[in-house]
Amino acid sequence: MSEIAVIGAGAWGTGISIVLGRKGSHRVRLWAHEKEVRDSILQRRVNEKFLPGCSVPDSVTPGNDLEAAIDGAQIVVSVMPSQHCRNIFERMRAHLRPGTLIASVDGEHTDQLKL
Fold first, then answer.
1. What is the pLDDT of residue 98?
2. Which CATH code is given to the segment(s) 2-108?
3. What radius of gyration do the chain's Cα atoms show?
4. Which residues in 1-115 belong to E strands, given as ranges?
């Protein structure tokens, strides 16, 4: 089972987490900047703020702790807004393991994400 961290819990990051979580062969940790997004997914298994009406599988674990989200991840999927990338990647750098695959995903190239 692969360990995947999805960094960014907007509509796109949540959607990617849902797809990966449904696959059944991934443990997905979804990092949310907003505490209310994390709480919504934990309590109701739905991201009410960014993706209401879409159920988040139990295999997706939401959190606000960036270090915990990437700890042990084999794959890190960046789905954060571009204006936050530099700051977040600098925060992640010390906690990434050598050999970790990092994928930066945007909504225009969905056909290229095949995990």
1. 92
2. 3.40.50.720
3. 13
4. 2-7, 26-31, 46-47, 51-55, 60-63, 75-78, 101-104
